[in-house]
Amino acid sequence: MGGRVLHFYLAGINNQNFLMRDRETGTWWQQISGKAIYGPMKGASLELAPFDELSFGLWKKESPDGQVLAAVGRDQKKYDSKWEEEVAKLPVPVSFPGTALKPREVVIGLVSAGEARAYPLDTILKQGVIEDRLGGRPVVLVAGPDGKSVRTFLGRI
User: Are 103 and 92 in contact (CB under 8 A)?
Assistant: First the structure.
């Protein structure tokens, strides 16, 4: 961030989304947008990074020499192995009347030229391929051969 290295940890959940806090300034960051929502860096934005949403099996097949970060022993106890299962039992505090999204529905979010759109993961996996336009550019979302993974492609000239 401006040449400064920040170290993040899970601070909580906000509107069904991962909230992280940096150790250096104590600022709270929204994972989905990369925006600082509280603290000395409020209003700042992290640079968004492209990524693939892959199952471990598909990633390992494509990257047999790849390496995965291992949990740090002293911190491992802080993370419940059934965290997602337990969170799914909690009430949903926010609903969005008039939308087709179900509570806690997993989406793939894309942003292009300031325009944002969410694509439900289940829809992508069922349809296999979704073609759309976003921010004036063609976009394609493709389900992986494992039926769990998704890749997105944004057209460029």
Answer: yes
Residues 126, 120: contact at Cβ < 8 Å?
no
Least confident of 6-15, 21-30, 58-67, 145-154: 6-15
pLDDT digits (tens, 9 = 90+) for 105-150: 888 988 888 898 999 999 999 999 999 999 999 999 999 999 999 9
Looking at the structure of the chain, the number of domains it has is 2
Cβ pair 144, 122 in contact under 8 A: no
Residue 50 pLDDT: 73
The range of the structural domain enclosing residue 6 comes to 1-49
> pTM score, two decimals?
0.68
Residues 80 and 117 in one domain: yes
Is residue 142 within 8 Å of residue 154, measured between CB atoms?
A: no
- Helix ranges (DSSP H) in 17-137: 56-62, 73-76, 83-87, 121-127
| Torsion, Cα of 40, 45, 46, 51 (10° steps) | 150
Beta bridge partners of 78: none
Pair (88, 148) in one structural domain: yes
84's tokens:
């997602």
Residue 22 is encoded by which pair of tokens? 């940096």
